[in-house]
Amino acid sequence: ESIEKGGYEHFMLKEIFEQPRSILDSMRGRMIAESDHLMMAGIREFENKFVNANRIIIVACGTSWHAGLVAEYLIEDLARIPVEVEYASEFRYRNPILNERDIVIAISQSGETADTLAALELAKSKGATIFGICNVVGSSIARATDAGAYTHAGPEIGVASTKAFTAQVTVLTLIAMIIGSKRGTLETTKLRELMVELETIPSKVEEALQLNEQIVQISEQYKDATNFLYLGRGYNFPVALEGALKLKEISYIHAEGYPAAEMKHGPIALIDEQMPVVVIATKDSSYEKIVSNVQEVKARKGKVIAVVTEGDTTIPAMADHVIEIPETSEHLMPLLSVIPLQLLSYHIAVMRGCNVDQPRNLAKSVTVE
Ligand code: G6P
């Protein structure tokens, strides 16, 4: 087993550090910016269906559901098709309204999650086209779909999903770009810019991983906290949910992810000097708004751990801790902003003596309801 861990103390840490490579593997053969090559076999087969889709419904569970939320922002913005993201377990019992012009995308790392499989079978019976995004080749969900794309992240052993998430987001980004360009909602210049930027993501993830030592120090200070709040807006909102889920799963600290502006409708009541608040506040279209959210947290003496874009000076002047990540397009930011949150949850869990790779009560793949 120690050989399989490749010198890392845990599979989770190894998998976090594999991300520059696994993200590249998710793009391999599908995109070469230099030669304007952007193609995905599974989509090509169903190109007309995608171009004329009425609606895209994403069904998934856990971390895969968070990847689906990122895709909602991407597909609506770039391809202008309405997207709904559903918990598979709710969708399957809701008597959902579906027809032949709807595409259902099922996202699952393992391809074996019982609720996701049942949700797609239901959608299929109502005539929708089913597209799968799975990591495990030949899995039940991969076999049950009409078409699909593998994430090519390689085996993920740690129960808490890390590299599978960034691989899912990479594939979903490519899908949004492909449909957007086919539908003419994404201009060629913008498409090219995104392709060039996406190619730089593996090396930017590599840079973000160099924050590891700094995150160890922050983890030391907060390892005994009993609650954590994670805030983000726009593309970073699903990242806030994912950061909170990672911490819950492996450190057993109660954590909540929230859209930063919703904080005033509840969680703000919890903020005092004991409450660490992780704010993902990178430079994007909601930056000014999130600056005020940070001020609201500081006014209530919360401890702010801010993830910011390199070179930012406004948020660092207010935050207690600043984690700087490289600049990128807001469409691609989740691929970078999730990295420090994965590391934070990992180190806090290790410091608390938790079984990081096999947390209590959780399973890597949930094949029962
Ligand atoms: C379990 C795992 C999570 C995963 C979820 C969905 O809860 O512990 O890491 O996100 O199932 O799994 P799937 O394989 O469908 O992505």
Could you walk me through the main structural features you see in this protein, from its secondary elements to its overall organization?
There is one protein chain. By secondary structure, this protein is of the alpha/beta class. The protein is built from 14 helices and 12 strands. It has helices spanning 11-17, 19-27, 41-45, 47-51, 62-79, 88-91, 114-125, 140-144, 163-183, 188-209, 212-222, 237-251, 287-299, 333-351; strands spanning 31-32, 37-38, 55-60, 83-87, 102-108, 129-134, 147-150, 227-232, 254-259, 276-280, 303-309, 321-325. The strands form 3 sheets. A 5-stranded parallel sheet has the order 4-3-5-6-7, sandwiched between helices. It has a 5-stranded parallel sheet with strand order 9-8-10-11-12, with helices on both faces. Strands 1-2 form a two-stranded antiparallel ribbon. A hairpin with a 4-residue loop joins strand 1 and strand 2 (37-38). The radius of gyration is 20 Å and the shape is globular. The two termini are 31 Å apart. 6-O-phosphono-alpha-D-glucopyranose (G6P) binds at residues 61-64, 108-110, 113, 116, 159-161, 362, 364-366.
